[in-house]
Specification:
The protein is mainly α and 124 residues long. The chain is built from three helices and no strands. The chain is rod-shaped, with a radius of gyration of 40 Å. It starts with 22 loop residues before the first helix and ends in an 8-residue tail after the last helix.
Length: 124
């Protein structure tokens, strides 16, 4: 606030041309200024509370972001490890060698298998 100005100072009277304002007008001005002062105070308080709330939310989001980044890093490392395990296991696994459909299902069982093959549906 500017030095020398006081929102509570009611001693200043603006000069009015003609007649002097009545005491009821002065009382109305004082009441209006008081209401305005209280409203401004409440507004500043709401602004401060909103800023505090946003600051807390920002801090919480920063913490959550850091935790998620850490989880992504761990999962990436786990994926690399599992990929290397799979790569080292593939040459040893006979179940992964490519086979032709005739070898998997003999000709007399093809129609039987097509009718009864079900694909499992996994729910996430």
């Amino acid at each position: 606030m500017a030095q020398g100005s006081d929102s509570n100072d009611t001693s200043y009277k603006s000069p009015s041309p003609g007649s002097r304002p009545s005491s009821s007008d002065d009382a109305k001005k004082v009441m209006r200024r008081e209401k305005n002062r209280i409203a401004a105070q409440k507004s500043r308080m709401r602004q401060t509370q909103k800023a505090d709330s946003l600051h807390l939310e920002s801090e919480n989001l920063e913490k959550e972001n850091a935790a998620l980044r850490k989880e992504v890093k761990q999962l990436t490392e786990e994926a690399k490890y599992l990929s290397s395990v799979l790569s080292s296991h593939e040459p040893l696994c006979t179940g992964l060698t490519p086979q032709t459909p005739d070898l998997l299902y003999p000709p007399h069982h093809i129609s039987y298998h097509h009718q009864h093959i079900t694909v499992p549906h996994y729910q996430h």
